[in-house]
Amino acid sequence: MSKGIMDNYDFDLFIIGGGSGGVRSARWAANLGAKVAICEEDRYGGTCVLRGCIPKKMMVYGSHFADDFDTAKDFGWNISVNGHDWEFFRENREKELSRLSGLYSNMLEKSNVTVLSGKGKVTGPHSVDIKDKRYTAKNIIVAVGGRPWSPSIEGIEHTINSNQFFELKKRPEKVVINGGGFIGVEFACLLNHFGSEVHIVIRRDTILRGFDNEAAAYLQKQMIAAGITFHCHQNILSVSKDSKDLLHLKLEKDITLEVDQVIMATGREPYTEGLGLEAANIQVDEAGAVKVNEFSQTTCPSIYAVGDVTNRMNLTPVALQEGMLVAENLYNKKNWKMNYEHIPAAVFSQPPLSTVGMTEEQVKEKGISYDVYTSEFRPLKYTLGDRQIRTFMKMIVEKSSGKVVGLHMVGDDAPEIIQGFAVALKAGATKDDFDQTIGIHPSSAEEFVTMKTPRK
After folding, report:
1. 18-29 per-position pLDDT tens digit
2. What does pTM read for this prediction?
3. What distance in Å separates the CA atoms of residue 70 and residue 72, rounded to the nearest whole number?
4. Is 441 in the active site?
5. What values do phi and psi take at 176, rounded to 5?
6. Catalytic residue among 193, 199, 408, 441, which?
7. Which domains does the chain have, with CATH numbers?
């Protein structure tokens, strides 16, 4: 007999949110024998599948053909390109996203999870309402993710956010992107490679706050070399639209721009509005993120939260792991905590930036004595022509232990390379371990095992 029925609840576990973290929690708990329900107000799949990782990466792939066609000439290929059909690509992409969303729903049903449609609202420690119908559960997981945040500026209604970017039926010829985080950087690079004139407005002088400063600065130089214009130490003061649908921007320092589109890539915020958290005395922080302990448990003991709604580390694989751990702890009598060390990450810019471990700034802040090894080169792929696409690689080593504590790379295939080396850092590999590893030649990855002399 179901544990939920024995406890006089409809379900053992009720999950609000059908994104990566929620779906993983639901399937894992159901496979451990729990009676599970999940609800979602949109299509299943969440930000990653519908408005983030997957469509973004498809657009990066699509835009990169411009580079590939250009490079092919240096290898003797005579290629005639007749332009790009943005609308065809968008429709083809949406078909695939719909297929993926359907797979999520099917996987849930095959795991015997009750799949519901509608916005869930917490109405107590053990209850959730959907469309005026109440469901009860011994435990609840909040996994509603986040949503784009935009500043309050005059004419904000003339701009689009990062979700709406994927709905564009026409590529903007000239575009302003407000924000230098990973979303803004990725959008800027892919639009630039599709052929748009791209301007980025940032409040600082560098992009990608929180990433290794040296690696981020290297990427920024590559973006400038590719034709992207940066407006640093700037804010958008106002946006207006004329009779021809052109947008006119006023920046600080009396700078004006006339463009086809303005994209607000100014960050995301936890999507807790209308969730009813107060009914269960669930606390949130000043940014609206749900407060949780090391087991993802909220201030209401029967309710947990995973993924972007907690604003801990907003990465899809992290949400997946958090969701799995909650299920294991609840239904497999584990006592597991999430480990946030040595989690690899990537910015799918062009070239991409990828990282694992600590940045040089973090090492300094912790007072660790360290050595830095770097390599900067032009990959073999580009040496037959005159294109100056380059790669930068950086290794940070703790002097006392010899452990490699940080790896950072800007260049082709950086995410694929860093993913493999992340295992080494997780296992505590030392610089000697790297030195004794034979490289694959010729490859960019071999640079990480051939760095011999630390930087002075």
Report:
1. 999 999 999 999
2. 0.95
3. 5
4. yes
5. -110, 130
6. 441
7. 3-147+269-331 (3.50.50.60), 156-266 (3.50.50.60), 345-449 (3.30.390.30)
